[in-house]
Amino acid sequence: MVTGTQPNGWTDERVELLKKLWMEGLSASQIAGELGEGVTRNAVIGKVHRLKLSARAKPTNTTPRARPAPRQAPRRPSGPSLSAGVSSMAAAAKPRPSVMPRPQVMGATALAMSPQMEAELYVAPATQELFIPEDKRLSLLQLNEHTCKWPIGDPLSKDFYFCGQHSLETGPYCEFHSRRAYHQIDKKKR
DNA sequence: CCCTGATTCGC
DNA sequence: GCGAATCAGG
């Protein structure tokens, strides 16, 4: 074939496409996905910077980027691996049982953003909380590394129990409560 | 947790 | 020049 397209290496075509998409406001990851599988989002960003691009749409904004931390410490894993792995369950993890009911809007992970992206917002049932059958409920002493430790109910009440669903490897909660614990907790810092 | 861009630095 | 790893904000 006459096509000598190299999987990697920034050809003029790709650079132009990169510029175009970047200027149009596409995110780096989206551009990377459009350019090809072999292109990562970091590659796109790196190229953008080298091309002196960035900026993109920055009206009346001086980009008060935080001072580039003078961190020149070794970030490469070239040292002795530290020994660790003693994961002993200390005190029971206490999340924030203060606020339970959350409207929670989802669908924020949409990748393909169309210019005419009309989000269909719908009101989720506020009382939507996981119902755990009695035979699935766990007391404090029944918790282990694989049980969701999300407390349900009044800790002082007799019918207080823990979720008990299979917890994720990445956290002490099941998928449902893991999102509850992190997602949307993000508030403005200071 | 997800995502975003920004920066650094070994290759 | 390239991009993974990392950082920092949302």
From TrEMBL:
Q: Where is the composition biased (Low complexity)?
A: 56-76
The segment annotated Disordered runs over 50-101
Q: What is this protein called?
A: GcrA cell cycle regulator
Domain of life where this protein originates: Bacteria
InterPro entries named in the record: GcrA
